[in-house]
Amino acid sequence: QPVEDCGIIVFGASGDLVHRKLIPALYGLALRRLLPPRFYILGFARSEMTDEVFRERMREAITDAHGEQPADTLNAFLAMCRYTSGSYDDPAAYEKLAGRCSVCDLDFDSSGNRLFYLALPPELHPEVVERLAQAGMTSEGQDHKPWARVVFEKPFGHDLQSALRLDARLGKVLAPHQIFRMDHYLGKETVQSVLMFRFANAIFEPLWNRSYIDHIQISALESIGVEHRGGYYDKAGCLRDMFQNHMLQMLAITAMEPPISFQAERVREERTKLLRSIRPWPEDDPANWIVRGQYMAGPPNILPNTQTGTRTAHSALPDYRRERGVAQDSETETYVAARLLIDNWRWQGVPFYLRSGKGLQRKVSEIAVTFKRVPYSMFGMTSKAQMPANVLVLKIQPDEGIDLTIQTKQPGPKSCMSSMSLSFKYQEVFGVTPPNAYERLLLDCMQGDRTLFWSSEGVEAAWRLIDPVLDMWRRRPERCPLHRYPAGSWGPEAADALLVNAGHRWRRPP
Ligand code: BG6
């Protein structure tokens, strides 16, 4: 599908997300010649700044992310960037913005198509969209020509009620096809490739159910702490920041039924259906289902460099409660592990274990599927219980790829067995690292393809699951205590207890 000419209007343009993710991704698209021929970027934020100063900041963001760039490529990109300032609650600022957009539409000959990107705290979303609408900027032409689309960064609301309220307000000024709820995990090449893996190969899907799968572990582990986002994170916590969105989307993609086509609505429906079939966590005995933790100061983190084989010491993280922007007596969780069950025919009785956290030993995101053991061992030296299970690991990041462990015979006259791995490494096969998730998702917004975005029904289903946990933590914190774990570890030991009864263990990423 061609990318139509358009302008992207970035709210929160002086913020961190724009610096670290958005502008580098747009520049990445420019490098790969994927931006439309007639295109502009108009930054909007409270700080006053000239176009020149904005361009200098964008230059910095690009070189921070991509390293030094050829001057002509970089300057051509920066020539498409402009800026205007204003207060998010001031109608006059939107009139001024509308004027600047019209000038840019003409100057860049971009057909009047506009993508509004809200890189703003979620509490500002409804007001900004309503003011955009009042200033006439969200109206579309006949047959959506020109179009107007709005991209929302997660989190979508703070809990179920606020998400429903947000949705109702958005629904008054935007049509569903104009709304893009962004979850950058869905833009990761390796997350999308789970769909290809499952539905473009005939050999795995017949095994993808309760008859052959013993359990599934989904992990998104990070070694960094909250860095400079303490103020936001301390109010959100890991359950809202990672679980309600990225973790549940990875689960949905892993466990959903095959959609009837690869069309946005069909794929989104199946993801939502899956989220709706997750069994709510029981209110009694919550600690047996969900564990929360918070990192304390730890020793320097020794990280292996997989490229060079060396190990580097990274400076130790401070105690979470000493991070900037974090309350000294904070009870906010930086780690969550959960066991959950899916109530449908395919998955009845199969435990899914999910965990995510910061301040952990290493950054690893993966989906590990452990199959059932052989029903009987004919090899005298190995009983059925000793025979290792086949494990399929979909490696989301880093070392993107797929590993499948199988048992083989060791060379020699004796019947000795050993486990080995069939391994596909993205970098080795394709010779490149996977493109940045934001690039893919921005392109999809410009093409109007909502397949990899949250639907409002999906958001609601996710909050219906998460909300009771937040509520229980608030009302009865003693029933699900906060476990402190040293930074640089694999999280609180209490998380192991979630698996022990079923005879399972958390995987230690290699
Ligand atoms: C973001 C969270 O959505 O995802 C961050 O807000 C987290 O807290 C980040 O660090 C992780 O993304 P990735 O792509 O680095 O795994």
TrEMBL record:
Domain called Glucose-6-phosphate dehydrogenase C-terminal: residue spans: 195-507
Record-level GO BP terms: glucose metabolic process; pentose-phosphate shunt, oxidative branch
Q: Which reaction does it catalyse?
A: D-glucose 6-phosphate + NADP(+) = 6-phospho-D-glucono-1,5-lactone + NADPH + H(+)
UniProt: substrate binding residues:
184, 188, 222, 241, 358, 363
Judging by the UniProt lineage, the source's domain of life is Bacteria
Q: Which InterPro entries match?
A: G6P_DH (IPR001282), G6P_DH_AS (IPR019796), G6P_DH_C (IPR022675), G6P_DH_NAD-bd (IPR022674), NAD(P)-bd_dom_sf (IPR036291)
Name of the encoding gene: zwf
| Amino acids binding NADP(+) | 46, 154
Coiled coil ranges (UniProt) are: none
Pfam families linked: G6PD_C, G6PD_N
Question: Main role?
Answer: Catalyzes the oxidation of glucose 6-phosphate to 6-phosphogluconolactone.
Pathway info: Carbohydrate degradation; pentose phosphate pathway; D-ribulose 5-phosphate from D-glucose 6-phosphate (oxidative stage): step 1/3
Q: Which residues form the active site?
A: 246 (proton acceptor)
User: What Enzyme Commission number(s) appear in the record?
Assistant: 1.1.1.49
UniProt keyword list: Carbohydrate metabolism, Glucose metabolism, NADP, Oxidoreductase
First-tier enzyme category under EC: oxidoreductase
Family from the record: Belongs to the glucose-6-phosphate dehydrogenase family.
Q: Which residues form the Glucose-6-phosphate dehydrogenase NAD-binding domain?
A: 9-192
Task: Report a single Gene Ontology molecular function.
Answer: NADP binding
Q: Which GO terms describe its cellular component?
A: cytosol
Q: What is the lineage of its organism?
A: Bacteria, Pseudomonadati, Thermodesulfobacteriota, Desulfovibrionia, Desulfovibrionales
| Descriptive protein name | Glucose-6-phosphate 1-dehydrogenase
